Amino acid sequence: xxxxxxxxxxxxxxxxxxxxxxxxxxxxxxxxxxxxxxxxxxxxxxxxxxxxxxxxxxxxxxxxxxxxxxxxxxxxxxxxxxxxxxxxxxxxxxxxxxxxxxxxxxxxxxxxxxxxxxxxxxxxxxxxxxxxxxxxxxxxxxxxxxxxxxxxxxxxxxxxxxxxxxxxxxxxxxxxxxxxxxxxxxxxxxxxxxxxxxxxxxxxxxxxxxxxxxxxxxxxxxxxxxxxxxxxxxxxxxxxxxxxxxxxxxxxxxxxxxxxxxxxxxxxxxxxxxxxxxxxxxxxxxxxxxxxxxxxxxxxxxxxxxxxxxxxxxxxxxxxxxxxxxxxxxxxxxxxxxxxxxxxxx
Length: 346
Hints:
The protein is α/β, with parallel strands linked by helices. Helix content is 27%, strand content 25%.
């Protein structure tokens, strides 16, 4: 089968690999129909993910059809159309029982697929702990509509869940890329007064205006003054940082009101520093880290019920055989690209 593979730093290749099969009784093998290209894949490509293992198939966001299952798998069966979770987890350890599945204690727990074990930008993928890692897609929900449920929509849902968003509050999301937009749309589910979303890219702000008019777009250079003026207590009640630069990291805490919650979901190329003397007295709560992706059923139900729709984010599609072109476009941010889908059936 064809599989897009991390060979080494700055070296991804489309290779022929053996088709996977179940190894453990909790495994499933999925025939991938659509996979996406993610910024985290670019971080691997550029050498910013030290735990990524050369030789693995990349990709951690996909949908497909169950091909086969191990004898202990109960929740899915061959023929089911499924969303594949970004994380593998047991559901039983100390962290999993508390919903912190990113910290599952199993050797292949957390973000493993497409990083430490073979991932989803391939014709087939083995999914460990399939009862936790696969969710049946409801009838009437297309592959394209469900594609982002396993990772960036899971990130947005998790970010909104941990950001202490109250009804009638003001929320600021920093970064109007795909992850930021997913965070903003999930924040809307909490019935805030407003959700501001800012970016340095005017094209992305126009995209927000065109497709998601319930959001309030702002240029990054205007955000601090605008939020301090518009919000009742001198800043946003909740801030979600989804951009990942030193400037956006600083903006996140500067734009927050005293005693606000700042949630950092961005991945950074370099370490960031909290300027504690400047921040003293703001009494902020910071929440950071990788997504706990255990809400796939709820997310797919929201999609099925018409309350979440991110199909517009999938702006381009390529066959898997043209993965090099897909990555080049995605990394260039040309042609209005947001998310790129790979059709793994061709």
